[in-house]
Amino acid sequence: MARYTDSVCRMCRREGLKLFFKGDRCYSDKCAIERREYAPGQHGQERRTKLSEYGVQLREKQKVRRIYGLLERQFQHTFFRAERLKGQTGQNLIALLEARFDNMLYRLGFANSRSEARMLITQNHFLVNDKRLNIASARLKPGDVVSVREKSKKMTRIAGALEAAERRGIPEWLELDREKMLGKVKNIPEREQITLPITEQLIVEYYSK
After folding, report:
1. Residues 46-58: tens digit of each pLDDT
2. Which residue of 30, 62, 73, 133 has the fewest C-beta atoms within 10 A of its own C-beta?
């Protein structure tokens, strides 16, 4: 599978906001955006030209795709699935992205980033409803219980992520027992519960062309 191999901080600078790819570092003055608020590249500090309507839509799509760490084809597939569901396509899209296993692990605090969550999932460190699940794109549903495998509970990476998660907090739609290293999905969040700076209507307009 294709994967991004350049500095992830460049993506944050390109989008002009923190995408929290590096855990604790993103909260410190070492964050790339804190040090260089301009876009990457040799022309990054030059005054940007005004984007066209299409450009604004494209940038929004790229921003959301990068936030959740999806490849282009994965994101497109998710959008088309959201389009087939009842209700508003944009809200369906956000709900599908939030329900992903890797996103839920990050939200629960078992990983410092969604990319780290995907790595831990593929290494079989987690169970869902007491069954091994190593598919990052799997979608969880209300009532699902996520737990750390017994042999993985002493991993410093997971323990450290749980400590760091106290800074950003656990969303109200999830429930976490830090002692047992166990989390529960209470419900899939409503759109108003997602505080990320996303304008999903721009993405709908982008794919409607």
Report:
1. 556 788 999 999 9
2. 73
